[in-house]
Specification:
alpha+beta, Immunoglobulin-like, 2 domains, 7-stranded mixed sheet, 4-stranded antiparallel sheet, 7 helices
Length: 498
């Protein structure tokens, strides 16, 4: 088992930790288990199963295989694997050597940005990113052809949770409430398909495959030639494939996602993966709110938050326990950001708010079981942290820059300050500030383009009349923000550069 040699020092509580970034591991239910090779005979499995007592299940995730041992408990009693993300990354590394290093590099940049180190392109906090979504519904039997209402409720759940509009934020513990964020990332159904034709954003495709669940995460659902359906342009749409991920009629896996990996800057000796793989895959039984098929072992997954978790991965997030290598406590491996406390392992589909698996000494904090990137129940998950928000927004701007539309919401303009002319034909604008305003504050101007990228950063504006030269910028639409010395926005305005 390979472990990344890249380290990152991160302090949680008062304990500094040397952090392997994106250590290779598996989305698993017990961190101390040794996974046998898929070729191991079923006769040896019962001994292995005893290493997973809290699962009370015979469903195992084994070195790229979701393997069902038929002895023991019924399917209704088994806990499915909620996320195949890290196993998926392991397989991508096997198929495309260098993928892991590339992904580690991306995450280090995003984590540094989230923690306050400005790298590459930055984005103003008030930019709202809107992402078009297409749901590919693959069905072999009628039950898999889920109703439109479940798709729309899934979109509602994504917007509810990413925009912090969920009423259950009231249940977040006081310690973590100030850290909960509105990510200002939102989702809409695609209205045009890749050829420009109108669409509902729901693409229904009949398949001859009984299931897309298998001993390996093969991505068959993403290719028409393999029984699935081809992605719509993954640089312009968030593709979500909805299909059966069961193995031998057991709900084995709930979902997985494709992380950002910065393909244009691929520096490996091997070829990068095809962009046609990018997107999210969901088990059809847990899509939407109150899906009637989310029963038994799926009953804790009825609030649409499997998709929230997986889209978090798609936008660059890790699990909050850091995905340590097998046999290593998460207390020694960080998720790279410092507003999610260290935790040794994932939650167990419950909501144990007394859980505190890492003792970091003075300033020690409990596990953040409310986080969408844990394995707590859907009724427990209620927040992304502010620095998780920063990671996702950084990854959008730098690695999925064609995916979204960006808009800065307008504030009321404070009297005594104005920007003109607007539109500007020659690229020159004038900022006028009344003397009284100048006597009270110092100001700076920031300009962003339509993608939310900062093109003019914190230019001082402390004169009654000051000319700003935008002629070096391309013609188009920009957003101007004038802030005082406290960072408070006093004016926000859309500018047209003709």
């Amino acid at each position: 088992m390979l472990i990344s040699s890249a380290k990152n020092t991160r302090r949680k509580g008062n304990a500094a930790q040397e952090v392997p970034i994106f250590s290779k591991t598996y989305c698993r239910q017990n961190k101390t288990s040794t996974f046998p090779h898929p070729s191991q005979t079923t006769a040896s499995f019962p001994k292995f199963v005893t290493k997973l007592p809290h699962l009370k299940t015979t469903l195992l995730l084994i070195t790229g295989a979701l393997l069902l041992h038929s002895q023991g408990l019924s399917a209704q009693q088994q806990n499915p694997e909620p996320c195949g993300q890290v196993e998926y990354q392991r397989q991508l590394e096997m198929q495309h050597p260098g993928f892991k290093d590339q992904m580690d590099r991306v995450y280090r940049m995003a984590a540094d940005y989230a923690n306050g180190v400005s790298l590459r392109k930055t984005v103003v906090p008030d930019t709202v990113f809107t992402i078009p979504v297409v749901f590919h519904v693959l069905y072999n039997v009628a039950a898999e052809n889920i109703h439109d209402s479940l798709i729309y409720s899934q979109l509602f759940a994504l917007n509810r949770d990413f925009r912090k509009r969920n009423a259950d934020t009231s249940s977040i513990r006081n310690l973590f409430k100030p850290r909960a964020s509105d990510t200002k990332i939102q989702f809409v159904m695609a209205t045009k398909d890749p050829s420009g034709k109108p669409t509902t954003g729901i693409n229904r495709v009949s398949t001859t495959k009984a299931t897309f669940g298998s001993f390996n995460l093969t991505d068959d659902m993403k290719f028409a030639s393999r029984g699935g359906t081809d992605a719509w342009n993954t640089s312009k749409y968030l593709n979500i494939w909805v299909c059966d991920l069961s193995v031998q009629n057991v709900d084995a896996l709930l979902g997985y996602a494709y992380p950002p990996y910065d393909a244009p800057n691929w520096n490996s000796g091997s070829f990068p993966p095809s962009p046609d793989h990018e997107g999210v895959v969901l088990h059809y039984k847990i899509v939407g709110i109150n899906n009637p098929r989310a029963t038994g072992s799926l009953a804790n997954s009825r609030n649409g938050r499997t998709a929230v978790h997986e889209v978090g991965h798609y936008l660059g997030l890790r699990h909050i326990w850091g995905d340590p290598p097998n046999g290593v406590s998460g207390c020694t491996v960080d998720d790279g950001i410092d507003d999610t406390p260290l935790c040794a392992s994932q939650s167990n589909f419950d909501c144990n708010k007394s859980r505190n698996t890492c003792n970091t000494g003075a300033g020690d904090e409990p596990d953040q079981v409310e986080n969408y990137m844990d394995y707590s129940s859907h009724t427990c998950q209620t927040m992304f942290s502010k620095k998780q928000m920063n990671i996702m927004r950084f990854c959008l701007v730098n690695f999925r820059s064609n995916l979204y539309q960006a808009e800065i919401t307008r504030d009321t303009v404070i009297s005594g300050i104005r920007l003109f002319p607007n539109p500007s034909v020659d690229g020159i604008i004038t900022v006028e500030i009344e003397p009284f305003m100048l006597s009270q504050h110092q100001y700076s101007l920031t300009l962003t383009d339509m993608n939310g990228r900062v093109v003019l950063d914190a230019t001082p504006c402390n004169q009654m009349s000051q000319r700003i030269d935008l002629s070096r910028f391309s013609r188009g639409t920009y957003y101007a923000e004038l802030r005082d010395e406290q960072g408070t926005i006093v004016i926000r305005e859309k500018l047209l550069r003709f």
